[in-house]
Design brief:
- By secondary structure, the protein is of the alpha/beta class.
- The chain folds into two domains: 56-121, Roll (Ubiquitin-like (UB roll)); 124-257, Rossmann fold, CATH 3.40.50.
- 35% of the residues lie in helices and 23% in strands.
- A nine-stranded mixed sheet has the order 6-5-4-7-8-9-10-11-12, with helices on one face. A three-stranded mixed sheet has the order 1-3-2, covered by helices on one side.
- Strand 9 (194-198) and strand 10 (203-207) form a beta hairpin.
């Protein structure tokens, strides 16, 4: 009788070593499934809007114009504020920096429900084109003009010229101060011509060219005018040499003195 070769040798399923590895593998698989299920449940719980909503705002910074209420209103404008885990900090930063007067915002989340907002405000340097403001870097921003004192210089210029006009004002103002004068308005018009209005009411027409020489010419003329400067309406310096002077009528001056 011929015996089958399959009947020879030990059967694999009956090998104790194989059974041991199979049981160990099944146990490891169960453990991994449990860990995965636990992680999934934990992450789902943490991302659930009802579980960890961002509900507190801590406002920081040396602030004069921006309040916590301003920040709260800005964040309330978001379509959806996520959880501690899901909310993108860069989105909150963009919203905070859209608030008038805010120059820079730094946002941090603090476990489990707090947003820390550190704000830096614009430092006002001038009023720009009558309806906006300039900071000390020449950046235009839309702060409330009613919160700015009346002593700020008024600068005017075409779009994109704010830094240039601010730089020129900073350069010229100390020169006028040497004569106890101050620039109240500085205008760069669309034709690139400059105009200055001083705190004593005199308007200077400087034009486009030889600006430094024309300003020095004004200083020399102003010193020679003496008390007559009170009658000066404007001085046009748009000449190669000399200047033309516009005078207030005598009756206007008398009326002004009576009103005082």
């Amino acid at each position: 009788m011929i015996k089958s070769a399959f009947n020879e040798g030990p059967r694999l399923t009956s090998n104790p070593l194989v059974r041991k590895h199979a049981v160990g593998g099944c146990f490891l698989l169960v453990v991994l499934l449990l860990i995965g299920s636990l992680l999934y449940s934990t992450i789902s719980w943490m991302w659930d809007d009802q579980r960890l909503p961002l509900s507190k705002i801590v406002l920081q910074g040396d602030l004069h114009y921006v309040s916590a209420n301003d920040v709260q209103k800005a964040f309330a404008g978001l379509e959806h504020v996520g959880t501690f885990m899901s909310q993108d900090v860069s989105v909150l930063q963009d919203v905070a920096e859209s608030i008038p007067w805010v120059s820079h915002a730094s946002i941090r989340k603090q476990w489990p429900d707090t947003v820390k907002v550190f704000l830096t405000e614009h430092q006002v340097e001038a009023i720009w084109n009558g309806n906006a403001l300039l900071n000390n870097s020449g950046q235009v921003f839309n702060g409330d003009l009613g919160q700015v004192d009346d002593g700020r210089v008024k600068l005017y210029g075409p779009e994109g010229s704010s830094i240039e006009v601010l730089t020129v004002w900073r350069e010229w103002e100390p020169k006028f101060e040497n004569l106890q004068l101050s620039i109240t308005s500085l205008v760069l018009n669309d034709r690139r011509a400059w105009q200055v209005i001083l705190d004593n009411g005199i308007r200077l027409e400087l034009g486009k060219e030889s600006l430094q020489e024309r300003i020095e010419r004004f200083f020399a003329l102003y010193k020679n005018l003496g008390d007559a400067t009170q009658r000066v309406s404007y001085i046009d310096l748009r000449y190669d040499t000399g200047a033309s002077v516009g005078w207030f009528p005598e009756q206007d001056l008398e009326q002004e003195n009576t009103d005082d």
